[in-house]
Amino acid sequence: MEIFAFYNVENLFLPDSNAGHKSEKTKSGLFNWDFRKYQYKLNKIAHAFRLIGEQHHQLPFMIGLAEISGDHVLKDLIQTEPLQGKYGILHYKSLDERNVDVALLYDHSKIEILESEPITFFFEESGLDEKYYDTTRDILFAKVKFEEEIINVFVLHLPSKREKDVNKPKRSYILQELRNRIDKIQENADEKVIVCGDFNENPDDEVLEILSGKTFQKNALENPFADLFFNKKYSTFHYKSGLLFDQILLSGNFYHQEDQLQFEMAEVFNHPQLTLKSRNLSGRPFRTFAGTRYLGGYSDHFPVLVKLKN
User: What does pTM read for this prediction?
Assistant: First the structure.
């Protein structure tokens, strides 16, 4: 059995240097983000994976991450127990305006990286005096080898919902470009595909049909998180609404009995230690910040995972 996990870790930034004045904007954008809180955050994220290991009797062989701010935080994270000495890093710096990226950690005793690249998107903004291009977070692509199987992994964090969801067309465009790439992979080889990330859409949204819709697509991906969402399993919350933005989609050959890796189950990993205990917010992720108020928790998202029979 192997585990593939994804975790939006909520603004994993390096600690800020001392500001000249309390009104000055810090690099992280966080309030009083110092070394002590940073180290505590690293230990919390690592502990979330320890809990996964304890519950499932092993750590993930690959981990997609979102909202990390560069190589340095990743290097610090993989030096933290129980990740220490097990994981390699794949990361490319994107042009995101908030300086948050996606990344892939992989168990280097099991996974061989064959190739990797960032997939970058530029969006021309209309109605401005000068030509202006908006940027967003890259998709990270990695072709990896696990034993005798080739797996194409895509890690994404799609543009956020805001201002009456003006970013929905961008999410649709990005997923269509991703669909085109996946089609090319599946035309030429019987390789597996995993797409993981924070989609900023629930599994039942029409935009996700670009990847998982079976009506017009020969090689539609399977989304095991659709059933979880139907059963009110949520990875994050916005006001009173439960959301399942964090998902892992799989190519159909993960469901072939003769294949080496086969889908077994999907899970929102909402372990009690990762959740708030207050009466009004019980069951929600124990986050690091609520606005400017420091709570000292893990993240505003739960990890999600799939178990694969080997």
Answer: 0.94
